[in-house]
Amino acid sequence: MTPSTTPPSDWQAREALILAPWAMHAADSVGRIHEEPPHPFRSPYQRDRDRVVHSAAFRRLAHKTQVFTGYHGDYHRSRLTHTLEVTGIARTLARGLALNEDLVETLALAHDIGHPPLGHAGEDTLDLLLADCGGFNHNAQALRIMELLEARYPGFPGLNLSREILDAQAARVARPAGQAPLLEAQVVDAADSIAYDTHDADDAVELGLVQLDELLALPLVAAAAATVRDRLGSLPPVELRRAVLHELIESQVADLLARTRAGLEAGRIDTVAAVRSHGARLVTHAPAVSAGKRDLERFLFEHVYRSERVMAVRRPAQRRLEELFAWYAAHPEHLPPGYRDRATDHGLARSVGDYIAGMTDRFLERDHDARCGRG
After folding, report:
1. What are the residue ranges spanned by the domains of the chain?
2. Global pTM value
3. What is the pLDDT of residues 51-106, one digit of tens each?
4. What CA–CA distances, in Å, run from 286 to 244, 258, 266, 290, 294?
5. For labeling, which of 150, 197, 294, 356 is most exposed (least CB within 10 Å)?
6. Residue 43 φ/ψ region, left for φ over 0, alpha for ψ in the -120 to 50 degree band, beta for the rest
7. Which parts of the chain are beta strand (E)?
8. What angle, 0 to 180 degrees and rounded to 10, lies between the N-to-C axes of helices 44-53 and 101-110?
9. Mean pLDDT confidence for 320-332
10. % helix, strand, coil for the chain, step of 5
11. Residue 372 · residue 323 · CB < 8 Å
12. Packing angle between helix 337-346 and helix 348-357, nearest 10 degrees?
């Protein structure tokens, strides 16, 4: 490389060179709740990313159900594979919009660490069991993990992430009135939607819950299939499914990039402050794509998430979680020390909920059988 094309060696100079004016620069971070000295060569958001990846909550995602509780197999997604797919899509969007990729990656990797075992079944059950003390929400639980439950560093509870990470996660629980999230947070939300719509459909076909032809009848999927056939001609069913799902992601990402760039230009957005004060989200789909996504999501809800086959598997799993929750509520001395100690300040039910929410699917099953007996 010639001197003029040599990339800068420090992260501040690199961000100044490649980030758009509407991107969040790590140098402008408001810092952490518990002050720490700066790292000699990692930016604050690089440190945040590493802290998330090295957390126990992140590792446990490998053995937590994404959607299909009780369906054994190696094809359909776990929470971890879903998280990695969201992260890949989000980084593509971030690079296309010249956003802070370290911040985007951190937000994407952390976005589901609050999910309990058993997928939606586990969340719904914990929400009912904790109704008298605020219920359960995986986004709020992720924030609780970040700020309190992880104990990996001396001197402070939680992961002590940058305030931008905490604020973005808090906005997933309750968005501040009149203030839009950072664009980095908006692209992670959009990537999450693309990933679960597309990949839940893929898993549902693989498990035989729906047929490919049923998906191809939906406008958004039909448009992707038409593009595939124009480009590749007739394909066998398995190859067609994979090509269509790839095109679904590709077309939604392309639509988001085009529409977001147009919105940034039309709104004359040239600072982070302008993003926040804009009010409405800037990372949005065109109306036709949004309508197609709603159709797909209604189909998945009716024919997959709430199908009788899926619900029949959910019910015994939910019963095991309920029985284990009741057992620990009656025997709090068997909680791990940290959870037992926190019960004094946060209540026994919440501490039992925290402990069970951190379990993997298979640990919950084993612990239930040991504490409550098989059934």
Report:
1. 41-372
2. 0.93
3. 999 999 999 999 998 665 554 445 457 899 999 999 999 999 999 999 999 999 99
4. 20, 9, 15, 6, 12
5. 294
6. beta
7. none
8. 20
9. 97
10. 65, 0, 30
11. yes
12. 140
Query: Which H or E element spans position 171?
Result: helix 163-173
Fold of 41-372: Hypothetical protein af1432 (1.10.3210)
Other beta carbons within 10 angstroms of residue 311's beta carbon come to 13
Q: What is the pLDDT of residues 206-215, one digit of tens each?
A: 888 899 999 9
Higher-confidence residue of 139 and 373: namely 139
Q: How far is CA 35 from the centre of its chain?
A: 27
Q: Which two tokens stand for residue 340?
A: 């037992």
Report residue 16 as tokens.
């100044």
Query: Which pLDDT score, from 0 to 100, does residue 69 have?
Result: 53
Strand partners, 162: 32
d(CA 244, CA 214): 13
State whether residue 58 is helix, strand or coil: helix
pLDDT for the residue numbered 149: 97
Dihedral sign from CA coordinates of 302, 308, 312, 315: positive
The helix (H) or strand (E) run that includes residue 70 is none
